[in-house]
Amino acid sequence: MFQKVLIANRGEIALRILRACKELGIATVAVHSTADSNAMHVRLADESVCIGPPQARDSYLNIPSIMAACEITGADAVHPGYGFLSENARFARILSEHKITFIGPSSHHIEIMGDKITAKKTAVELGIPVVPGSAGEVKTEAEAKETAAEIGYPVLIKATAGGGGRGMKVAFSEDDVLIAWSTARSEAKAAFGNDSVYMEKYLTKPRHIEVQVMGDGQGNAVHLGTRDCSLQRRHQKVWEEASAPTVPKDQQMEIGEICAAAMRKLKYSGAGTIEFLYEDNHFYFIEMNTRLQVEHPVTERITGVDIVYEQIRVASGEKLSLEQKYINFSGHAIEVRINAEDPQTFAPSPGKIQFYHPAGGVGIRVDSAVYQGYTIPPYYDSLIGKLIVYGRTRPECLQRLRRAVDEFVVDGVKTTLPLFQRLIKEPDIIAGDYDIHWLEKYLKADKA
Ligand code: MV4
């Protein structure tokens, strides 16, 4: 096992990782920017190192600074959390060249999944169902027209180096396919320095359902069920559930087993999330994320698995302590993201938290790194905390969520809590009947 883990992140996820390290008896190193000197992760870690000025590119994304912090403290492993350097294959490679363990998959697996065409090809080879689309890159105007005609309109053009929704263009007919294709290419070039694009059938009303997987790099892998993350705005998830409501249990286990089998074949190591669109009762692979995700606690709650603890164990060379047949799925969990944002416009609302009272009681977990008197800096994402609620059934979970949202107080900054107060009353939400467009339509109708 590791002696000392450096946590290359901040906020609630840095705390989440610190806690797992404590339970494993591992010493911790926090790194922080000058804007985060008073942050909770710095206070709770055994040691801390300032790695640069506030801007993330100069601190949390600054590989030489983080390598120096490893050297100074003698850390033998780095946990990257989510965001920042968590899916940076070069960072994973540099660490391994310095005999420091990256707590995550191999740089090879990060690279494969980072290139969306290679990811999709890999998925096909592994027997995972994918969205119908081009075999690879769509390189010419002629190819764009032919491929779209084969797939059938509407089609979606995506950046090979993209992901997370950036640089996508829809074409509804042959009249717009060339414009969509060339716009997608130039936007991809500008955003990623790579103009490669591919094409897919555009699914018009899917749900976003993902499968959590874990492997040990030795051919053992399990799935931890599904999460529905359809409630999102501008590709920012606001509400996540495990298991995905309305998907039959046997179909959930079937797609889960397909994913687990795929990860066994890949000899995947660590935590991963396989993203699907779900429409008309079918799962279609779109991407794989090779990191711990924000919404992992809902999966932890319904399975009893400590995903971060398991990540650290397998990174240190131990076998997965989990076996599929002993993983039970029970009850329902919902996470809502409490952001320091205007609940109507979603404009960031950094500032000082004057009063803070998190919800508690039966079925409640709050993952947060704020405290009363803490000033939320303007430089990073606006997540104040995650409210994770459990119930034996989805209705029980919703009832507790309603109660917990009422109880939660954050004064001094605007938060998304009032949005959740409204959402919990919506018949579609109560019924679990929503797709990836539901929230944006709801917010738009609100303005009109
Ligand atoms: C799609 C799609 C419809 N059809 N692919 C957006 C983020 C990226 N991960 C993939 N995305 C989408 N891919 C096909 N073939 C619709 C989206 C999409 C979306 C997906 C998941 C969650 C929210 C979304 C919001 C808009 C579009």
Quickly list its features.
448 residues; alpha+beta; Rossmann fold; Dna Ligase, domain 1; D-amino Acid Aminotransferase, Chain A, domain 1; 3 domains; eight-stranded antiparallel sheet; five-stranded parallel sheet; 15 helices; 26% strand; binds ligand MV4
Question: What's the short version?
Answer:
With 448 residues, the protein is an alpha+beta fold.
Give the low-confidence spans. Answer: none
> How many helices in DSSP terms?
15
> What would you say the CATH architecture of the largest domain is?
2-Layer Sandwich
CATH C-level class of the largest domain is Alpha Beta
Which molecules are bound besides the chains? ligand MV4
Tell me how many strands there are.
20
Which percent range fits the helix content? 25-40%
Mean pLDDT across all residues, rounded? 97
Largest sheet: 8 strands, antiparallel
Integer count of domains = 3
Protein architecture, described:
It is a single chain. The protein has 448 residues and is of the alpha+beta class. Helices cover 35% and strands 26% of the residues. Strands 13-12-9-10-11-14-19-17 form an 8-stranded antiparallel beta sheet, sandwiched between helices. The protein has a 5-stranded parallel beta sheet with strand order 3-2-1-4-5. Ligand MV4 binds next to strand 8 and strand 13.
List the helices and strands and how they pair.
Elements: E1 4-7, H1 11-23, E2 27-33, H2 40-44, E3 47-52, H3 63-73, E4 77-79, H4 89-97, E5 101-102, H5 107-114, H6 116-125, H7 141-151, E6 155-159, E7 169-171, H8 174-192, E8 197-201, E9 207-216, E10 221-233, E11 236-242, H9 249-266, E12 269-279, E13 282-289, H10 296-303, H11 307-315, E14 332-339, E15 351-352, E16 355-357, E17 364-368, E18 375-376, E19 383-391, H12 394-407, E20 409-411, H13 417-423, H14 427-431, H15 438-447
Parallel strand pairs: 1-2, 1-4, 2-3, 4-5
Antiparallel strand pairs: 6-7, 6-8, 9-10, 9-12, 10-11, 11-14, 12-13, 14-19, 15-18, 16-20, 17-19
The structure holds ligand MV4.
